[in-house]
Amino acid sequence: MPTLKDVAELVGVSISTASRVIRSDTSRHINAETKAKVWEAVRQLDYTPNESARHLVNKQKAEKKRTKQIGCIIQTARLNDDHPYYSPIITSFNKKILESGYSLAFIHTSDELADDALLHRCIHEIQVDGIIIVGEVGPAILDYLQKTEDLALIGICTNGTEITMVDYDRIHAAKSAVDHLIAQGHRSIGFIGGPGHTGELNSEERFQGFKFAMYDAGIPLQKEWIIDTRWGIDLSYERVMEQLKQPSLERPTAFFSASDQLAIPAMRAIIENNLLIPNEIAFISMDNIEFAQYTTPPLSSVHVPKVEIGMTAAATLLDMLRGEQPQLSKVLLPHKLMVRQSSLFDRN
């Protein structure tokens, strides 16, 4: 059974230093490189800090039994029970695994699990059978999970990763939304969104779909109206407002937004500038959250099958745990364009 001394010797540090890293003791400064080496040694040696947890790990390994527990790691730092996009996914996922005798052991954001000690406890002391990853959680966390033995992983909206995925075709969905605006006669279309998994706007699939639609129609992009909000709701309002206040800029006749949550504050900026939606600036968006139909005017949006994504992810993960699912696959569920007044020219 590996000991703390083994960890310290593998890294080349004192036992007290290794102990402080594992206990997240901040009483003395330890540089980031040393911390990373300690946690890598913990992983390599399969060291479990807590004595009772070590006995539990060894017992479970010997018996080779499932714990019937699943963990959830989610991208957003604004995790709450009413999140309009993530909540339906997680709720339906949880319902499906409960029906199969499993339970959700924890839900943590990627920001919370930047604490290496917490990440280690969640995976090795709670002893989950699998993890559902929702959104982009960062390469360090993902690498740690992929190197953990006998841990089933499934991702939702987790681009740029080599794990089993359940999602929808963002590129095609975004293109269908922009095609709708083009069919309405628009030739000057702005974009509102945020970066993809590389941290750059060009890696975001909804932005790619926007560009494909524009290129196919022979419509040039207007760089000044490609608004990167970094996925910030307040920034969506502020940056659209800033652009509209510049008299030298010819405003677009329509906007495509990568999410409803970014579209709604941008629409407010339009209205506060005494512009009419859709007659002066039309809007279409993505996600079709419940609130989209109650904006003024009601927001056109691409419906993402959030409940179905959650249930399919749960069913796929359960199949993986039973050995009935390939280790690497990608399931894409269909989307649907929901056309409302925000993108339809009012001729009255």
Automatic annotation (TrEMBL):
Q: Which parts of the chain are coiled coil?
A: none
What PROSITE patterns does the annotation carry?
HTH_LACI_1, HTH_LACI_2
Q: Which terms are listed as keywords in the entry?
A: DNA-binding, Transcription, Transcription regulation
Q: Where is the HTH lacI-type domain?
A: 2-58
Q: SUPFAM superfamilies, alphabetically?
A: lambda repressor-like DNA-binding domains, Periplasmic binding protein-like I
Q: Pfam families of this UniProt entry?
A: LacI, Peripla_BP_3
Q: What PANTHER family is this protein classified in? A: HTH-TYPE TRANSCRIPTIONAL REGULATOR GALS, LACI-RELATED TRANSCRIPTIONAL REPRESSOR
The entry's protein name is LacI family transcriptional regulator
> What does the organism's lineage look like at the top?
Bacteria, Bacillati, Bacillota, Bacilli, Bacillales
